[in-house]
Design goal:
With 354 residues, the protein is of the alpha+beta class. Helices cover 17% and strands 33% of the residues. It has 8 helices and 22 strands.
Amino acid sequence: MSTLYPMLIEQRYDERIWGGHNLVERLGKSAPRDKKIGESWEVYDENRVSNGLYAGQTIADLRSKMGSDLMGHVPAETTFPLLTKLLDAQDVLSVQVHPDDEEAQRLEHQSQGKTECWYVIHAEPAAEIIYGFSRDTTPDEYERLVASGELNGILRSLLVRDGDVIYLPARTLHAIGAGIIVYELQQTSDVTYRIYDWNRRDANGQTRELHLEKAKQVLDFHGFSRGPIRPLVQSDGRRAILIAGPYFTEEMIATREPVEISTYGSPVAICALENPVAVAAAEETVALAPYSSLLVPAAAGAYSVSPNSPGDRARCLIAYVPESKEATRQELVSRGFAAEEVGIFLRQFDPVRE
């Protein structure tokens, strides 16, 4: 067996105060039914491979063992750069914010902040997210409104529906609302500054810790006007680029025929959606169950995605680390998109404020 085969990844389930049972009931995951599971960590540095030559070893083990064969242009000595999750928000999450890289280093002595994005798998009617401030505010007003319990008055709500793609640069205030299931792709960081938690208590009657002062140091206090991302969809509909930010690229593959895709010199995380998907690389083919994930090593060079059963449509999300913004631009133009539409698309990932 090649060392560059598609590696199935064992997920990690985390109970959350806002979680539920939809990962089992809607997505068919094997999460515990007696706990409110909010998160399935799908691809993460400490997750283990479950098939083939490297079964039982973590992605971190393979970074050390395989080096650039796994990681490509990403330094192998750093934590695996992608973290993917499935989230079941049975209840609303806390209002929160994440630091950027510089702030994470200054405040937490961690190398990475947390920019993230959400692909909405399911949203109940009228489900919404909190997505930034509704108007410009200031650190002083923020403190006053938090103290008086009136911060909700300047939070911006956004209705979401199935298939929406939301980009969340670090420093953006946000919360997932109740009745939403998302696939989350993010920088590998778990630094969260909780601002408001709806006065709820855990099973022991305790409230969760808030991080108001650190949040004040990292929040973007400008009013926010972004909506869902407008993807670039190829004319045949088989590939759509959803996210092209500085830390990760995310695409949707939707096909009834095999599609061959480059690794772009990066490890690639793949999550199947509602149907099983066949992923082939280095002369090995692996069946990927719905809402399960695998990893393709960078040095595989290319891989193919196809339906696992005749007549099905394969739909999956793929994530990788771009070499540069210019490389992404050139790649999109090479796929037949006009330079102007590529520029418009990429501007969606520019900083809100310089």
